[in-house]
């Protein structure tokens, strides 16, 4: 029974991470990271997920390398994370709705404290990923070239 329980928990967590990762593509958060984590867990049970783990991992790394190619991109990414954290703090503090707010007070900063907590957590994750990407790829053309070779190899293997 322990094996079945473990499988159910891992599979449930995998699906949850996959769905949250897809949502985070459109919402603030590390979408590709969530998709990769979900697929990695699901790949233990499903062949279709196993086939998709490596392409998603490589695309996430390629996005990380592109995000630190230039200083304007690095600055924009850091500012985006700072704005996300500031919005999260605003949600946590939840000041009263301003006089100019045209809707009911219940529509002012909906979601409560947990919306703010997830925004702040997403900002910290984003900053950690920016630092990781910077240390791994910025000013290291050999690392980017190796990643490009891996992407091309993966494409050739699929097609």
Summarize the structure.
The chain has 159 residues and is an all-alpha fold. It has helices spanning 2-26, 31-42, 47-67, 71-93, 113-137, 141-158.
Describe this protein with a few key phrases.
Uncharacterised_PGPGW_TM, mainly alpha, 6 helices, 159 residues
Describe this structure in words.
By secondary structure, this protein is mainly α. It is built from six helices and no strands. The chain has helices at residues 2-26, 31-42, 47-67, 71-93, 113-137, 141-158. The protein is flat.
Query: Major beta sheet, specifics?
Result: none
Write down the secondary-structure element order.
Answer: HHHHHH
Radius of gyration using CA atoms only = 19 Å
**Low-confidence stretches at least 5 residues in length (pLDDT < 50)?**
none
Shape: flat
pLDDT averaged over residues: 88
* Beta-strand content: under 5%
Topology, element by element:
Elements (H helix, E strand, L loop, with lengths): L1 H25 L4 H12 L4 H21 L3 H23 L19 H25 L3 H18 L1
Helix pairs in contact: 1-2, 2-3, 3-5, 3-6, 4-5
Organism: Nocardioides renjunii
InterPro entries: Uncharacterised_PGPGW_TM
Keywords: Membrane, Transmembrane, Transmembrane helix
């Amino acid at each position: 029974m322990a094996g079945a329980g473990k499988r159910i928990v891992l599979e449930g967590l995998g699906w949850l991470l996959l769905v949250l990762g897809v949502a985070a593509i459109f919402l603030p958060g590390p979408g590709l990271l969530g998709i990769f984590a979900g697929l990695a867990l699901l790949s233990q049970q499903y062949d279709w997920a196993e086939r998709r783990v490596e392409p998603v991992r490589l695309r996430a790394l390629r996005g990380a390398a592109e995000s630190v190619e230039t200083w304007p991109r690095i600055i924009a990414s850091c500012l985006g994370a700072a704005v996300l954290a500031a919005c999260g703090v605003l949600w946590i503090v939840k000041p009263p709705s301003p006089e100019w707010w045209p809707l009911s007070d219940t529509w002012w900063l909906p979601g409560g404290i947990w919306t703010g907590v997830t925004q702040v957590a997403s900002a910290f994750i984003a900053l950690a990923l920016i630092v990781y990407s910077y240390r791994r790829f910025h000013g290291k053309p050999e690392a980017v070239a190796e990643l490009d070779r891996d992407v091309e190899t993966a494409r050739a293997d699929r097609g």
